[in-house]
Amino acid sequence: MPKKVVSYEFIEGTNPYISDFNENYTVSKRFNAPPDFDQATIDAVLAAVGASERTEPAVCSDNGFGDLRYLEFTRLSGNTFSLALPNKNNLLTAAAAVKAIVDPLNSGNNPVACIALVGEYFSNLNDLFGVSYDGTTFATSHKAPATALKQNFASGVISYEADAATTVGLAVTHSIRSITEKADNEFAAQLGTTPAGCIGDFLTVLNCGNGRRNPRAHRRAELAFATKADPTDTAEVAQSETIELPIAGSGALDILACLNSAAALDAVYCLGYRGESYKRVDRLL
Predict the structure, then answer these.
(1) Separation CA 146–CA 239 (nearest Å)
(2) Model-level pTM?
(3) Helix locations, 79-164, DSSP H
(4) Which residues does 257 contact at the CB level (< 8 Å), separation at least 6?
(5) How far is CA 81 from each of CA 3, 45, 113, rounded to the nearest angstrom?
(6) Is-contact 115 102, C-beta < 8 A?
(7) Please, what is the average pLDDT of the chain?
(8) Whole-angstrom Cα distance, residue 28 to residue 59?
(9) Rounded distance, CA 200 to CA 188, Å?
C-alpha cells in the first residue's frame, strides 16, 4: 500500500510556527503518511503537533524560508516518518502524543522505537537582524601560514540549557568547539563580550558524550566574516571565514540577545542560525 501525501499548515495568529527566536510564521509542509495511517490517524497526529491539513495550495512559497524543526519517528520496522514541530516548548508533549496514537496500530506490532529532534536552520538572517557589511576585515584565525585551511578553536565545557528536558531538568553540561583560541588574534578582540553573552563561562568539570558520540548538537549562530592575513593590506583580497558561536540559553530572549550581538559585529557579512538537535528524545518520555 503506497504512502498517502497530505499538506498541512501552521497559521500566524491562530497556530503559528514559532522560531527559536520567537518569530511567528505561516508555513505549510507535506506529510508522507505511512501506509497503515488512515485519515483519522493522519488527522490525530497532525493535531498532536498543532497542525491542520490544508486543502488549498500554499499562497506564498516557503522555499526561501529555512528548514523547520521537526520530530523524526522511527518505528520497530525501521521505517520513519517526520512531522514539523511548531513550538519547541511542546516538544515532549507532542512526541508522547504522536507515539500514543501510532503504537496501537496493527495490534501494536510496529510501535515507535526512537524519536529524534532535528533543529531548525536559517542560512541567512541578514534582513531580520539588520546585518549590513561595513567593508572591514579581521586577521584570519587560520594556523600559519595564513593560507592553511585549519583553524584554531577554543574548546571546553559550558553550562547549557537543553530544549528537551532530562530527568534533572533543562540544565546540562555540553562540550563545544568554537572561535579562535589565539589571544593575539584580532577575532578575540572582535568578538569582545559576545562569547560570554552567548557561550557563557567555561567550566572546570568533567563531561561525557564528547564529539560525535554526543546525542545532542547544541544551538548556534553561524557567522561569516571577511578576513585577511594582513587587514592593513589594501591590495590583499578578502577571504571568507565561518565561525560557529554556541548559544547556551534555550529561551527566545537569550537567543535573540546573542544573534543581535553577533549581527552588530564588524566584518560580519552573513548571519545564520541552527537550532538544537537531539537524537534520543524517546528516552526523555
Answers:
(1) 11
(2) 0.87
(3) 91-102, 126-129
(4) 197
(5) 11, 11, 12
(6) no
(7) 84
(8) 9
(9) 15
**Using 50, 70 and 90 to split pLDDT, how confident is the model at 201?**
confident
Q: Which three cell numbers stand for residue 275?
A: 537550532
Which helix (H) or strand (E) covers residue 194, if one does?
Answer: helix 194-198
Beta bridge partners of 44: none
Cα–Cα dist 180/183, whole Å:
8
β pairing state of 268-274 and 220-228: antiparallel
CB contact set of 179 (below 8 Å; sequence gap of 6+): 141, 153, 154, 187, 188, 191, 195, 243, 244, 245
Comparing C-alpha atoms, which of 176, 169, 168 is closest to residue 202? 176
Residue 182: is its pLDDT beyond 60? Answer: no
**pLDDT over 90 (residue 73):** yes
Count of CB atoms within 10 A of residue 37's CB? Answer: 21
Name the strand (E) or helix (H) holding 166.
strand 154-166
